[in-house]
Amino acid sequence: MDSIRERVRQAMEWLKDNRLFNSNRAIAEKMGYNPSVVSQVITGRSAVTQKFVRSLSSVCSRISYDWIWTGEGDMLRETPSSGAIPTERFSELDRFSFIMADMAQLMKNFSSVVGPLERRVAELERRLAEQGSTIERLQSLLDRMEKAATP
After folding, report:
1. How far apart are CA 102 and CA 38, in angstroms?
2. Second CATH level (architecture) for the domain 1-78
3. Three-class SS string for the chain?
């Protein structure tokens, strides 16, 4: 029987072979792990934990947590018997869900950049308005001084 590390490797290879991910790094990031931690688990320098296996099986609904953790059953879950999702379309749908998740993350990242920029622009606009008021006050003062200086 395969070791748990070998099952982890097989699951990761399946994810790459089916073009859901292009690298172990991408899988690690989707799992929420540092790529070096995933590498250490695969090579045996770190233990395979239930949390790790849950994270790996959660990146694709087809991968069976039980198979990775215990070696029982099949690596891939069967598609729902009554479901309208044919097997050949399942990986396409998984790929779509990952693309959507990546887009959501990009939007979150974009928002985290845009929010501070919007605040910075508002602050600069406020300062510009203050400086405009100061210039108007100084211009008015200068006009009065010029009138007072002329006989």
Report:
1. 20
2. Orthogonal Bundle (1.10)
3. CCCHHHHHHHHHHHHHHCCCCCCHHHHHHHHCCCHHHHHHHHHCCCCCCHHHHHHHHHCCCCECHHHHHHCCCCCECCCCCCCCCCHHHHHHHHHHHHHHHHHHHHHHHHHHHHHHHHHHHHHHHHHHHHHHHHHHHHHHHHHHHHHHHCC
10 Å CB burial of residue 16 (0-12, 13-18, 19+) is middle
Has residue 106 got a pLDDT over 90?
no
pLDDT at 92: 61
Q: Is the pLDDT of residue 90 over 70?
A: no
Strand partners, 63: 76
